[in-house]
Design goal:
By secondary structure, the protein is an alpha/beta fold. The chain is built from 14 helices and 13 strands. The chain has a 7-stranded mixed β-sheet with strand order 1-3-2-4-5-6-7, with helices on both faces. Strands 10-9-8-11-12-13 form a 6-stranded parallel β-sheet, sandwiched between helices. The protein is globular, with a radius of gyration of 21 Å. The protein starts with 6 loop residues before the first strand and ends in a 5-residue tail after the last helix.
């Protein structure tokens, strides 16, 4: 079976080199592609293994593609490709289907294994089954992760996500709408957005899963499929406020409520950011200005304040945009992760 080639950046033999495993689909894949571009920008030697291409090829050659068999064949292809490349390090990105057996196999070949887990550890608990296969484990939350990593002899790193590159090039469009939200629906998100709609705000709502929604937000939904980073940037550029709403109602002052990368996209696109008041947002956006809320009624008031101040805050929004472009890119994040892993540093 002829499998597709991986993207390969040529290296010299005296350099460290990275084998980067990209998730197969969805938002995780989009982040993975940003990470690959970051390796290019940082001039770090690497080979990218795009699992989605391999999974489609494997399924296309099987009469009855059982999921377990497909993952096993994928991991065989991955291991062969990795060993042929002979990297010093391997970086597996969130939701890429790499098994513990494969990780242990590559560790025995003295390849340093690292993972960037940019999902919510409570919603995607499968990290526990592969943790011991990683020498380094980076994540967007803390919670039980640092202690679990210590027990598995894996170095933990706190590493947040970053702005998607299309938002840095957001088009200059008339801001015809009050609020934009891009993301999958949940009970909490629907409650907050319905409260905004009741107050007469003009909204752009988009994201996979909204086709199942039937209610007062229907008039505001402009796309109910998976939304590309380019479309997201366009929606944000057409709105004065971009709102970030956690999937679940956050526990008061919960330090483990992860902040979505959409906060960076909002700021980069020149919109006012309104987001739920959780500790992590103040940590990751400490040099940016934004408006926070708690509870649906608080969201209405926060959005109103942001809209009322919009015309007088052009300088603050430009400062936000520069801060994101300078400090919250995937090139910055990848450079930091590579440095930590290659020097053996652990950072909480």
């Amino acid at each position: 079976m002829a499998l597709p080639r991986c993207h390969l950046k040529k290296i010299s033999p005296d350099m460290s080199s990275w084998f980067v495993v990209v998730p197969p689909d969805g938002a995780a894949r989009m982040v993975g592609l940003e990470v690959v571009r970051a390796f290019d920008q940082c001039a770090i030697a690497y080979k990218a293994f795009k699992t989605g291409i391999f999974l489609r090829e494997i399924r296309g050659h099987l009469r009855d593609p059982d999921d377990t068999l497909v993952v096993d064949l994928l991991n065989q292809s991955l291991a062969v490709s990795c060993l042929d490349f002979a990297p010093t390090h391997m970086l597996v990105l969130a939701l890429a289907p790499v098994t513990l057996f494969t990780l242990k196999l590559l560790q025995r070949q003295r390849i340093t294994t690292a993972h960037w887990f940019y999902e919510d550890y409570r919603r995607v608990p499968s990290w526990r089954t592969v943790l011991e296969g990683y020498d380094h484990f980076a994540a967007i939350q803390r919670g039980p992760l640092p202690s679990a990593c210590a027990a598995a002899a894996s170095r933990y790193h706190f590493l947040h996500t970053a702005v998607m590159s299309p938002s840095l090039r957001a088009p200059d469009e008339p801001r015809t709408h009050d609020v934009a939200f891009v993301g999958v629906p949940s009970r909490h998100r629907v409650e907050v957005l319905e409260h905004l709609a009741e107050n007469g705000l003009r909204m752009l709502i988009a994201g996979h899963g909204w086709h199942r929604y039937a209610g007062p937000l229907r008039a505001h939904i402009v796309d109910d499929t998976w939304v590309s980073p380019e479309r997201t940037a366009s929606f944000l550029a057409r709105s004065r406020v971009g709102i970030d709403i956690p999937f679940h109602v956050p526990v008061a002052r919960d330090p483990d409520t992860a902040v979505s990368p959409r906060v960076y996209n909002v700021l980069a696109a020149g919109a006012e950011l309104v987001c739920e008041d959780v500790p992590q947002v103040h940590e990751v956006l400490d040099m940016c200005s934004f408006t926070t809320f708690t509870a649906p009624a608080g969201a209405r008031d926060a959005v109103r304040r942001a809209l009322d101040a919009f015309d007088t805050r052009a300088a603050e929004r430009e400062a936000n945009r520069r801060q994101v472009a300078d400090h919250h890119t995937y090139a910055r994040r990848v450079s930091r992760l590579v440095s930590r892993v290659e020097t053996g540093d652990a950072a909480a």
